[in-house]
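Case study: Poly(3-hydroxybutyrate) depolymerase.
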Amino acid sequence: MRSPRAPLSRRPLPSLRSLRAPRSPRRRFGAFAVALACAAASLLPAAGPAAAAAPPPVAGALSAYDIGAVYTAGVSSGGYMATQLHVAYSGAVAGSAVFASGPYDCARGSLPTALNACMDTVQGLSVAALEQATRDRAAQGQVDPVENLAGDPVYVFGGSNDTTVKRPVVDALADYYGRFGARVRYDRSTAAGHSWVTPLGPNSCAVTASPYLNDCGTDAEGALLGHLLGAVAPPGSGTGGTLVRFDQDAYAPGGSAAALSMGREGFAYVPASCAAGARCSLLVALHGCKQGYAYQGFGTRFVENAYLNEYADTNGLVVLYPQAAPTSTLENPNGCWNWWGYLGDTAYARHGGKQIEAVMGMVRALGGGGGTGTPPSDGRTVLAATDAETGYVKAAADGSGAAVGTLKGLYGLALGRGADGRTNRTVVSFDTSRIPAGKEVTRAWLTVTRSSGSGDPWSSPAGNRLLADVRTGCFGGCAVEAADFSAAPTVAGGAEIGAFASGSAVSTDLSPAALAALNRGGTTQFRLGFAQAQAGTAYLFVNQGAPVTLTVEYR
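Here is what the predicted structure looks like once written out:
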């Protein structure tokens, strides 16, 4: 990342030097952010796009199709997001294709690390440490079981003239996937700059400049799709389907795409055959920095020139084009995807990550992500709580004066008695329709991660118990409301969480009645609360750094 050239996960990655631009008094890492954004921006060529290959966008909504498998693909910051989606939801995503980016969660939540280890090589990059961190997350239910990655097709592309994300970083991505048994095809044969390589690219191969679409005289899309899907038919015109322009707010946790640094508008290319009911695959295609629709009039150039719609028409492939967008602050001015934890999203690379959950919501709306991809080999699905339907409620010890808690965004979800003398209960919501159809659920449990607290709520009074009530569907409306504090559950005390002072804790297995109460057709809500009101202030907060998860085993 020495000079702005190709598209990065946050902003098109320019160069590391250009990333180190002016510092902002507003944020401790403001200067780094600006530099990274600039670097990412310069990652893509500036020349105009080739003739548009996509039909004009038509306003509409995402509809469900017969999707047999889901894959991800991306460049720069979009490449990092493609890998994050694949690793976090490997039970639903069957493979990935990545241009010009490094291994999963390379940045580890640190912007300096992103700049110095995940774009440049100034700082060491330990693939072994990243592998172990991924395995630890899987053990905690924060990402799907890593066993799912074994045998998955992964296409990696790195150009020899890419000085934004240097070759050793891309090498590390191939190494990372290989450690989990993925089938990696690594193309490092061209002199490409930092870019998405496409026959429709207006830039010459070695350039790193906007629009970061480079023609290297090769068909990288045919190669990557051939690796992901198997043999592919020759491309068509890319105009035989419908390009749907949809509202991304509908899929953003909290209802605002802008709050996540995503655009209001997203796009999906739907071939006529898929619309007519044919079994199709779904590819999530993620642009790089400075390539989003809302970035300074960039528009649909990536959608039109990525050379994916052409293959979509002839190979039964729905292509989803989610859109990141720039912030008006120094957090993400180049509209990169979140691969280092901007806007305070510490879960950005795992279940509960706001952008990840938004994109997965789109995938499910298109008919993917439920039974898509290869099901977990051990018969296990890990579900992250639905953020928009998760929160906490507080009331007097007798349940009177109930109200929705307001500190979720600052501290997490409250449990126990707060300093205000009120008792807190937490409601967490899961889309349990994602449990594979036709399977018998044999076991399930909750995992919660503590972020802070005061006192020991389990010892006030002595022997107090933290219980999980289960509700088939929702306690009231699915959004958290005051009445949830006392609403009747389907099963009371379906599981219990023992005392823990830090880290994560796993509940007891759900009781047989609680297992039977899981809603296989939609939402299941759990209400966590102590059996007895505490005599004094004693509470904990959970769900701040990691979402509550529900792990389900089946046969």
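For the exam, be able to explain this: The chain has two domains: 16-365, 380-554.
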